[in-house]
User: Fold CfrBI restriction endonuclease from Campylobacter upsaliensis.
Amino acid sequence: MRFDSVIIQSVVTKLLQGQDYREEVINAINLEFLDFALDFFKAILEAKMQDCALNLEWYKTHFINNANIKPDEVAIYARMNKKTISNIYGSATKEVVLNVANANIDYLESLLTSLGDSGDNIGITLKITYKNIAVELNLSESLLVINALATKKIALRGGAWSSIGKRVEKPLMLALCEKCGVKQEFINAEVFGKNKALDFDREVDFKLYNVDKTKEYRIEVKLMRKGNPESADAVIARDS
Assistant:
């Protein structure tokens, strides 16, 4: 998930003022999720109007085996995450994603069929309307859509909290240096490059130097929250 410069600056300002920055991230997640949900519903409406295929074949045609849809989006529509596919199968190429996505939809369809045959008489119907056009999704279709939306929300949340930390690191340190009067000549905010003279070198977010530049201070920035104190281990691991 990407954050624009306005959100990054707002987060930095709140951190410098000792305020909680998480509201900015949550608002960004919700906004992107709502945009996705609305676009998804519109695409479903168009697909159902064009395709009367039985079962979930229409869904596979328009949302899984569609050459115009990116692999990461295909994974979401199949209620999976591209990173999860990569972790399980060791690859997340388009071919792998398509195979896994199709298999997952087939499995879900058989699962939903079993649910329908259980005799519990559970009924869920999603109705999507746009102007004077309306389509209704049956139990299987509705549960598939709900699953896809849930998967997207989880993916956004995971990506957002990881991304905000990486995007804020350097702007925050530069702002702190400015407030503390650290001159530019003692600051190294360049993209990390491994020191080939060392057998092992870990990436750090920022570097500072003493007056005669004989000593390097490696800086590791972590946006800590309750429940993840283990992140502090990264400071020790990077000798920062």
User: Anything to note?
Assistant: The chain has a mean pLDDT of 85.
